[in-house]
Design brief:
The protein is 34% helix and 25% strand. The chain is built from 17 helices and 25 strands. The strands form eight sheets. The chain has a five-stranded parallel β-sheet with strand order 4-3-5-6-7, sandwiched between helices. Helix 11 packs across helix 12.
Length: 525
């Protein structure tokens, strides 16, 4: 057990309620709970889950934006001994059904009214997996065969607090807390199995590095992502900080909430801060409460870091690097690093975690030489759900997690990520994997073959460019194919450009030569 005195999420929740009882814990709409009240709601959700038949180790999925119900339900799952399976809010029905089926989730918590999207309808169109016993609708209308969140919470009365406490105390640090699905370069998403003690320890370290301390935290990073769940909800519990969920990022709504709620912590990918800095009437807004920023996931201009300090008033700006398989964290800059270090590197290994750069033979590369980033330590996942072969590929016999990312390490141990996992590209802060997009595109009857590469985009960082060999006898209608993709996959995966070709360039082994396609895409734009 680490120095905080807890190594499970239920222990963390109890500790937060005891240490920060009267401090504001959750602000969302009319909801304003202190930490003691927040724990009461979480424990009621846990009792309702037990009443619903959720046993220790059962998987429960959440498919919804950042709202208070998401936090209460997810933490309730942890307290009941279950495993949280977050689903990306941008997923379409087929993608969500895959995660539900693969994880064997018993229950799903979702909404029917987010950005004009009805998640229940999407899932029903794709086919509800047999393993799913119940769908609870947290906000929006309740279609037939679903349960409202209020009716779900009423079940808590049927289970005693003694029974709930016994369930919580049986959880150990080695038990699974999350299964987070990460899209793999082989196509289908893989479920990274993460445990209580690793997540608790990682984000205590994260909170200490950035100096999070009773802050007012506007959580714009999605709860389904490690940045929103672990570095958001859990970090707030660790530090007595206020959870202020923000469901959709747009500059005006964020600018309003900063003075309204006296926001001191504002995280996000660089595009978030660039959008704020580019606001014409920036000087009209009171930014004086801002203190702390955490960013990453894309290249960062040094000038942006300087402007964030000068124009937005941030005292501390921290960048970092991690992946789902490392509990979302591996390296971090320290808040007192030079702006050049913060802008140009992803920092160095967090305490008690090893990070190396290795060459093709697996030997440590000299400082300044590029190689694959590998990570070893308590933060590395238990493995991929139901996939020992992929687990063995990712984690070697010595316990090193092979990230597939290429980086260079300086004399101080700071890493600069120079290339990314094979062909992955980052669209608006989301990892997009060409193989997965290609698999989805080949479901279209007019697509014979598809190869996708990332191309630079001023607004989103990178977007998909698809080369398509049409199926025999089919039309070459790029606009129609892009429109079809919008209905079948999350928006960040949808190619923005489609080019029809008679054949794809292949090497002797029959593999598509992506570098040739990248060059061609660059010439076409």
């Amino acid at each position: 057990m680490h120095d905080a005195g807890w190594e499970t999420i239920p222990e963390l929740i109890d500790d937060a309620a005891n240490r920060f009882a009267d401090r504001e814990a959750m602000v969302d709409g009319d909801i304003r709970w202190n930490f003691s009240e927040f724990r009461t709601e979480i424990q009621a959700a846990a009792r309702a889950l037990i009443a619903s038949g959720v046993s220790a180790g059962d998987r429960v999925a959440l498919w919804a934006p950042n709202i208070w119900e998401w936090a209460v339900a997810a933490l309730g799952v942890h307290v009941a001994g279950g495993v949280v399976v977050p689903i990306n809010t941008r997923f379409k029905g087929r993608e969500a059904a895959y995660v539900l089926e693969n994880s064997g989730a018993r229950m799903l918590f979702c909404v029917t009214d987010f950005l004009a999207t009805d998640y229940v309808a999407l899932l029903q169109q794709a086919g509800v997996p047999e393993s799913l016993d119940e769908i609870v609708v947290m906000r929006g209308h309740c279609p037939a065969n679903t349960t409202s969140f209020g009716d779900f919470m009423d079940r808590a009365e049927a289970v005693s607090e003694t029974e709930r406490a016994a369930r919580s105390s049986a959880i150990t640090g080695d038990d699974l807390c999350h299964i987070m699905f990460t899209s793999g370069t082989t196509g289908d998403p893989k479920g990274a199995m993460l445990i209580h003690s690793a997540v608790c320890r990682s984000y205590l370290s994260w909170s200490q590095v950035i100096g999070l301390d009773r802050d007012r935290y506007l959580i714009i990073n999605p709860f389904f992502h490690s940045f929103g769940l672990n570095a958001g909800i859990l970090a707030c519990l660790m530090t007595g900080s206020t959870i202020i969920p923000h469901p959709v990022f747009d500059v005006p709504s964020v600018m309003r909430r900063i003075p309204e709620e006296r926001i001191s912590m504002l995280p996000g990918p660089p595009a978030v801060y660039q959008a704020i800095l580019n606001t014409e009437d920036l000087d009209q807004w009171d930014m004086s409460s801002l203190r702390l920023a955490v960013t990453g996931a894309a290249a960062i201009p040094v000038e942006m870091i300087i402007s964030m300090r000068r124009r937005l008033g941030f005292e501390k700006i921290v960048t970092g690097y991690g992946l789902t398989e490392s509990s979302g964290i591996a390296t971090m800059c320290r808040h007192d690093d030079d702006p050049e270090i913060i802008a140009n590197t992803s920092g160095r290994a967090i305490d008690d975690v090893e990070v190396r750069i290795v060459d093709a033979a697996g030997q440590e590369a000299p400082r300044g030489e590029p190689g694959e980033i590998v990570v070893r330590g308590y933060n590395v996942m238990k493995g991929y759900l139901n996939d020992p072969a992929k687990t063995a590929e990712a984690i070697d016999a010595d316990g090193w997690l092979h990230t597939g990312d290429i980086g260079v390490m300086d004399a101080e141990g700071n890493i600069d990520i120079t290339d990314r996992v094979k062909d992955m590209f980052i669209n608006g802060g989301f990892n997009a994997y060409p193989a997965e997009i290609e698999n989805l595109m080949t479901n279209h009857p007019g697509v014979g073959q598809a190869a996708v590469v990332g191309v630079p985009d001023e607004r989103l960082g990178e977007v998909g460019y698809a080369f398509v060999v049409p199926a025999v006898g089919s039309d070459r209608d790029a606009a129609a194919l892009i429109a079809w993709c919008r209905g079948e996959m999350a928006n960040y995966k949808v190619p923005r450009h489609v080019e029809y070709v008679d054949s794809l360039p292949l090497n002797a082994g029959g593999k598509v030569l992506k570098y040739q396609l990248r060059e061609r895409a660059g010439r076409q734009r």
